[in-house]
Amino acid sequence: MKAQGTVHKYKDNVDTDVIIPARYLNTSDHKELASHCMEDIDKDFVGRVKPGDIMVAGPNFGCGSSREHAPIAIKASGISCVIASTFARIFYRNAINIGLAILECDEAAKDIDAGDEVSVDFDTGIITDITKGRSYQAEPFPEFIKEIISAGGLLNSLKK
Q1: Which residue of 10, 23, 151, 155 has the fewest CB atoms within a 10 Å radius of its CB?
Q2: pLDDT by residue for the chain (160 residues), tens digit each?
Q3: For 120-127, which contacts have Cβ atoms below 8 Å and span 24 or more sequence positions?
Q4: What is the pTM of this model?
Q5: Cα–Cα distances in angstroms (integers) from residue 106 to residues 11, 51, 93, in the given order
């Protein structure tokens, strides 16, 4: 499994309330959620994001409430992978459950800048900042997580 795209970079402690504000939680429509993703901290995100792009952030990404809507909004917006120094544990599990690829790599999260072109090899855990010509090592996904993400989420993987 691989991903490649342009980076959208965010700060530390990005909570689920700014990933998808609570005022939009009255829908489960993925496209509707995506249309409001990150709008409280980055009004231009929805207009800039392209399928396959990558989100990068500092520590404690996805803190706050346990809403599954947050990783759904990110994935539905077109983001192929989120790289962060660390993730809030509930967000981490929700992301895997819905099939959003996420990697913890503090060095990459600190060094990669907005607008950089980045590729990720999920089999090896190697993150490459193509713009800067630098590589970083994250923990590769175990086989069962690769299967969940490839299937588009836990429920889809159980249908196989």
Answers
A1: 23
A2: 899 999 999 999 999 999 999 999 988 899 999 999 999 999 999 999 999 999 999 999 999 887 899 999 999 999 999 999 999 999 999 999 999 999 999 999 999 999 999 999 999 999 999 999 999 999 998 999 988 998 888 876 666 5
A3: 120/2, 120/3, 120/4, 120/54, 120/80, 120/81, 120/83, 121/1, 121/2, 122/1, 122/2, 122/3, 122/146, 122/149, 123/1, 123/2, 127/83, 127/103
A4: 0.94
A5: 13, 24, 19
